[in-house]
Every structure is written in structure tokens, then in C-alpha cells.
Amino acid sequence: YDPTCGVAADPAAGGFGAPSAAGAEATGRVVEVEVEAQDMRFEPASVEVDAGDELVLVVTNVDSTVHDLVLDSGAASGRIAPGATARVEVGVVGRSLDGWCSVAGHRQMGMVLDVVVRGGAGQATAEQATAGQATAGQATDEHETAQGEDRPGAESAMDLRADPGEGFVPRDPVLDPAPTGTVHRVTLEVEEVEREVAPGVTQSLWTFGGSAPGPTLRGSVGDTFEITLVNDGSLGHSIDFHAGALAPDEPMRTIEPGESLTYRFTATRAGIWMYHCSTMPMSLHIANGMFGAVIIDPPDLPEVDREYVLVQHELYLGPQGGIADTAKIAAEAPDAVVFNGHATQYVHEPLAVEVDERVRIWVLDAGPSRPSSFHVVGGQFDTVYLEGAYTLGGADGPARDAGAQVLGLHPAQGGFVELALPEAGTYPFVSHAMVDAERGAAGHILVADASDEG
User: Fold this and answer.
1) Parallel, antiparallel, or unpaired for β 271-276 and 201-208?
2) Interval 84-119: pLDDT, tens
3) For residue range 172-187, what is the model confidence (pLDDT) as tens digits?
């Protein structure tokens, strides 16, 4: 349908929740109320009408992103483009109604509207309202359907002791050298994909380039990055590169499906920097897969034998195959904390190292909310680089008599550690926030003795 057009809904015919009339006798009066959608709010946020009046809501989207209005009776506007207006023919009203924007995350941001009826039946029963909200969401927003009651919760299917699903391909954690040249041109396409995120669990992800995390970018201080963001998704998205310093107004603006923009920045400081979607609610867009890392090498970064990158992030599992659960995000209650998009991939496909090889592991905490305490069981770090500075080792080389046991990161912080593992064996790596290790923030480093090979 055309998202700029209004959609008149017949609640009874649609089979949605309790009808708006609730048995009230029609007065013959038509009440038309203008409503504006802007900044995750409806204005006015409450509309009063006498029982029996016929209500029409004229909704104008004065925001820069798409919104809609859904009522628990089933009446809905359809998607409303920026600058467009839609008429919602509510019908005869005999009870109070709940309304909201069904674009993913907007309701949780406070984009709600109440219809208060004078002399009516009041609110629908809790059962009617719940049924109406679930069904109306199914009728108006494909992302909200993923959170409906008719699909099993993904968390109930998660077994961290199980093998990944057939055909699952782990994300390669090897960090490639920076490409040659000083100008790096990259196209990042927003894609909506379904991926396995834990054994037996799939989620519908919003991604940069088809994976969560998005591709890792790398360069040097002074390099310029020219990023073309193409929105091939079904709702508005944006991108924010922490590796650049510039006014966010234009390059970080939300673009609607089918649109693109160019984001250009020069890297002036070293470190591992987060990039992410900055469309509100940011917590949902990040939790649903829209994040990645940019590595800007410190000057004179020495070569090592092996180099890996791990991005820690959380999973807030909605229904199987659906998007992240916004209530769990708000409660900071993740079902899993993982590295590079899957809860157990590096237990089954360990990082490969040989005895006494020098290994550098870059770590970024993408959050959106949990910290990381990166630790290698059985290993000690002789070099630690945190948020642009060496806290151990550095220009003078590894410290002989000093070491570190963890790299502690808040959300959006990053750094790297270096170590050499002295014996063949399996060395787990974890977040030493142990509850997170036990719910997926773990993997293995498999150390082989080169003299035993062959």
C-alpha cells in the first residue's frame, strides 16, 4: 500500500480487539481531531470525545522519519511519510482506546495516544485490549508481528551446550591488514536478514552489509574514510562513526528505505572505534545488529604472528525468528552475551595459535548496555592498549615483570591485548563478568605445538 495514504479500518470485519463502539448508541455527530507526530510523541497525546460520537483522527507527520498510528480497536493510519497526512476513521466510540506508533521501538520511546470517552464504557477488558494490541500490531507492522504471542520465545530454545545448526558458518575472527592507500571507500547496505545467533535460535537482524557485527574497517591515523550508506531495509536507519569527529546533523541523519547518503571522515586518533545506527531508539537498533568496529592503528604498531578481533554484544531474544525484545532491552536483561554474533561459535571453532606465537586480540564492547572484562584463562597479557593509550607495554616493548589479567571495557570502549601462550592446549577466553561468560561470552583458543605437527 501507499504509506502516505490513510487506511480506514472496520474493527469488526478485521477481527481485531474490542470494537470501539462498545454498544454505545450513535449520536450522529462527527468529531475530527488533528494530531501531529513528532519527536517520538503525538501532540495532543490525549483526545476526548463523547460516547456515541464518530471520531476521525487527522494525523500529520511533521517529523523527519516515518510514523503511524494504531488503535487497539484495529483502526490504523498505515505508514505516514515525513510531511504527509493520513485520516484514521475510528468510527463510533463508546469506550476509551489506546493508540501507539507501531514502528519498531517507537511505542517504547513513549509514542502513545489515548482516546478518552466521556460517558462511555471505559477501557476494554484486559483480555480484549491485549488481543487487540497484538492483532492490530500484526496488521500494521511486520516488525511488531515478530513480537506477537503466536510464536515461541527464542530464549526457550537456547541450549549453549548444543552444536550450532547445520550449515552455520562461524564469523572469521582473523583481522586482515589495513588496505593500501589513504582513502578508503566502502559501501554499507542496510539488510534485514535472519541468522542463527545461538544453537537452535534464529533472529531477524537489521545489519550493515548482512552481518552483525558489520564489517570491520581498518586504516591509519590521517586516512580518510568515505562511507556510502544505502538503506535497503524496511524502516529508517542511520550510521554514526566514533572514529570521526564532525557535526552529526547531516551525516548521521536517519534515511528512509530506498535512500542513501555519503559519510566522510578523517581518522585523527588511533584506537578501535565503534560504529552503529543512531536512529532512535538506539538501544533497539544496536541490540538488533546494527554495529561494527573501525580499527585505526597506532603509529609504529609492531607486527605480530596472529591478530584477531572480537566484538562483544548482547542478545535480547524475542520470538524465534523475530527481532530483539524491547522490554528486555529496557530492563537490561539479556538472554545471552556473545562475541561476533553467535553464542558458541568459538567454542566449536576455536581461534588457532601455535606455542609461543605473539598474538594480538582487539576487543570492542558494542553493548548496548553490558560491560566486558576480557580474560584468557591460563594466559597473561604483557601488553594492554585501552582507549587510545598503552596501559602496559607499548613503545618500549612488553614489560618483563608486569602483566595484566583483564581488559576492562564499558559499552563502546575498546582496545587490544597481546600475549604468548607457553604450552599446547585449549585456553578459554571469556568476559570475567561470569554471569555473561555463562550466557555465551566465551570461546576457545586452541594452541598447537608446531614441533608436533605432521
Assistant:
1) unpaired
2) 999 999 999 999 999 999 998 899 888 999 999 988
3) 999 999 999 999 999 9
Instruction: Give, in order, the Cα–Cα distances in Å from 384 to each of 201, 305, 362, 403, 405.
Output: 35, 17, 10, 9, 10
Strands across the sheet containing 414-420: 336-339, 306-315, 358-367, 414-420, 383-386, 389-392
Considering just the CA atoms, what is the radius of gyration of the chain in Å? Answer: 26
**Whole-prediction pTM:** 0.83
Place of cell 596472529: 306
Cα 318 to Cα 157: distance, rounded to the nearest angstrom: 11
Residue 45 binned pLDDT confidence (cut-offs 50, 70, 90): very high
Query: Which contiguous run of DSSP H or E holds residue 177?
Result: none
Closest Cα to residue 368, out of 329, 323, 409, 324? 329
Per-residue pLDDT for 322 more than 50?
yes
Amino acid letter for position 348: H
CA atoms within 13 A on the CB side of 344: 17
The three-point CA angle 382-437-421 to 5° equals 30
Distance CA 421, CA 328 (A): 39
Pairing of strands 306-315, 358-367: parallel
Q: Which of 271, 203, 206, 269 is nearest to 238 (CA)?
A: 206
Q: Classify 232 in phi/psi space as left (phi over 0), alpha (psi -120 to 50) or beta.
A: alpha
* Alpha carbon distance 255, 235 (integer Å): 9
- DSSP conformation class of 448: E
213 burial via Cβ count (<10 Å: 0-12, 13-18, 19+): buried
